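Thread title: Can someone regenerate the structure for this chain?

I was given the following input by a collaborator and told the matching structure tokens would be attached. They weren't. Posting the sequence so someone can regenerate them.
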Amino acid sequence: MKRLLVVSILYAALLFATVYALCGQATAQPPPGPPMFGRGNCPGAIFGDGQNLYVTAGGKILEYKLEAMTLVHSVTLPAPAPPAGKPESMGHGPCPPMPPPPSAKNSLWAGNGKLYVLAGPAVYVYQTPDLKLEKTVMLPR
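Best answer:
Regenerated them for you:
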């Protein structure tokens, strides 16, 4: 009789430990993803023209002198324009709406005294070396 009681207690303890471990795994939060640079989910970009290094990170354009790697200029990228037209309203039903897809990576190119920055649906043209925004070109959909 004592043997049956000891076996029952050990079995209950083992069952309790298993259930506790499984419940702990089910409620655990997934680890955070890697940090992303740029505005929103846009990773950063980097480009050099032989004299300067241009970097997009944290929604900014940073210009460094290559010789000493010193920061020369820093400007904030313009906020992306809202999409044209009214979005179609969809009934949510049993599921919430899907989040928008992540934005494309920023791209940089420098030449002819200008810095061209592709960020979202626009190309921003900056004068170099002072990084003054000259014009914005919206890309067609």
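The two ends are 79 Å apart (CA to CA).
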